[in-house]
């Protein structure tokens, strides 16, 4: 009976595994092709049939990147910017999500809806007034000016509010208040340990978002010493002669830290979808 059940189970899930494998290969192929192009000369970019086997010019192409832009300085600037913004967003979003979920105050629903409505406003519409304000405050060509726009994240507030509402019961909050805990103590000792999976999910989203942002960073940052990776790599794109091997080599090495960060926190990222209980 057990053997038959195992066989039926295996046969039943086989199409699911096939679809998942195909979807995974399709998702990974752009990264693989980027790696292949990073190991080949620029001419291979337009070759027919396209090259699908890695070449031997990975080190040579990357050396050209190092000779053209301050790559490691730009990577350090990007890491500092993304880490700082992520930490601040996690703190603000978790506090706001806790407040919107567990406290009643005048205009609570109106404020929450207004925050969500900011998600539908294209960021390009505010580019000129935001640039004017940052310029007047003296934050041009600084990492603080490049990251100031991301500190208030409507998606993060919404995610934290939903997670706190589902994972932290009101009875637990009331019991902590009866024991004399302040609101901040409840947040630090009860809420934070429960919402760690949501922290990991939001952290990966924000870190990736800031890492891949180009328009605002390109607008604010001016000197090569303050460039982030996206701005520095954009300077490799010459209008008359684009070396695709060099360009994709820089893009490949700029993507590696994101992959490592996801691999470090993927368990918490997945558990945020499957967990919602109180330990």
TrEMBL record:
UniProt entry keywords in alphabetical sequence: Cell membrane, Membrane, Transmembrane, Transmembrane helix, Transport
Membrane topology: Multi-pass membrane protein
GO BP annotations, alphabetical order: transmembrane transport
Residue span, ABC transmembrane type-1 domain: 75-265
Keyword Transmembrane: yes
CC annotations in GO: plasma membrane
Major subcellular site: membrane
Keyword set includes Disulfide bond: no
Compartments, as annotated in UniProt: Cell membrane
SUPFAM superfamilies: MetI-like (SSF161098)
Membrane-traversing stretches: 12-35, 74-98, 110-132, 138-159, 194-216, 244-265
PANTHER family according to UniProt: ABC TRANSPORTER PERMEASE PROTEIN MG189-RELATED-RELATED (PTHR43744), SN-GLYCEROL-3-PHOSPHATE TRANSPORT SYSTEM PERMEASE PROTEIN UGPE (PTHR43744:SF8)
Record-stated family: Belongs to the binding-protein-dependent transport system permease family.
Record's protein name: Sugar ABC transporter permease
Organism whose genome encodes this protein: Pontibacillus yanchengensis Y32
């Amino acid at each position: 009976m057990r053997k038959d059940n195992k066989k039926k189970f295996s046969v039943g899930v086989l199409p699911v595994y096939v679809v998942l494998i195909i979807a995974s290969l399709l998702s990974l192929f752009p990264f693989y092709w980027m790696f292949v192009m990073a190991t080949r000369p620029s001419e291979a970019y337009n070759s027919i049939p396209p090259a699908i086997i890695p070449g031997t010019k990975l080190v040579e192409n990357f050396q050209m990147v190092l000779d053209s832009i301050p790559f490691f300085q730009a990577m350090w600037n990007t890491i500092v910017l993304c880490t700082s913004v992520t930490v601040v967003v996690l703190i603000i979003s978790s506090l706001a999500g806790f407040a919107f979920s567990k406290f009643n105050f005048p205009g609570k629903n109106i404020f929450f809806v207004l925050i969500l409505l900011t998600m539908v406003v294209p960021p390009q519409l505010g580019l000129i007034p935001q640039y004017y304000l940052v310029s007047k405050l003296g934050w041009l060509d600084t990492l603080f000016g490049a990251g100031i726009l991301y500190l208030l994240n409507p998606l993060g507030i919404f995610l934290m509010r939903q997670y706190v509402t589902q994972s932290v019961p009101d009875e637990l909050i009331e019991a902590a208040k009866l024991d004399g805990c302040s609101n901040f103590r409840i947040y630090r000792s009860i809420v934070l340990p429960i919402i760690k999976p949501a922290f990991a999910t939001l952290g990966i989203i924000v870190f990736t978002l800031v890492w891949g942002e180009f328009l605002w960073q390109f607008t604010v940052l001016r000197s090569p010493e303050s460039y982030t990776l996206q701005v520095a790599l954009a300077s490799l794109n010459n209008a008359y002669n684009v070396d695709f091997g060099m360009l994709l080599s820089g893009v490949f090495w700029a993507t590696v830290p994101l992959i490592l960060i996801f691999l470090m926190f993927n368990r918490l990222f997945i558990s945020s979808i499957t967990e919602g209980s109180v330990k």
